[in-house]
Amino acid sequence: MRICGDHLSTRADDIIWRVKVGGEWVYLYLLIEFQSRVDQYMALRMMVYGGLLYQDLIKRGKVLADGRLPPVLPIVLYNWSPRWSAVTDVFDLIPPVPGLVEQFKPRLKYLLIDENAWTDSELAPLKNLVAAVFRIEHPASPEAIGGLLSLLDEWLTERPDLRRMFALWIRATLMRKAEYRIVLPQIED
Fold it and tell me: Domain of 154?
């Protein structure tokens, strides 16, 4: 479930990763918000989304065996210009308060991934999916997209689940960028 927008509507697209930490499997919920503009109050939005996600997990009985809440990693993926300038912790949206009250100001940080922080020449030598995604979002030319698609095809051969997810995302990404519209081949998976 994903909470979004001013009306707090929900969408069924939880991203849950299972990672090994200290020899034990841990489930990590990723709360991802895609942004194409800087939002001064993004930290507050992410705090609200996280709280609503936790309420939903409690309601559905998806808490940990001991009753605690599972970890949630809030991520903002920013893919536009200018560079991101909003604070990444809701704590910083509230001015300092003297005395005891300061320690009760809410804290919630999100992980900012600003695609504009790297150039294509910095990303090209990195052999990972995140670098490929950034390069597809901001291709050097329409011809460069073909090479990137070939790399993804090679890297995702053994991962049909990720392959399908990337295929859908790539089609949506390339369709919305008029300057890079290309005819993509039909895909079977």
Answer: 119-189
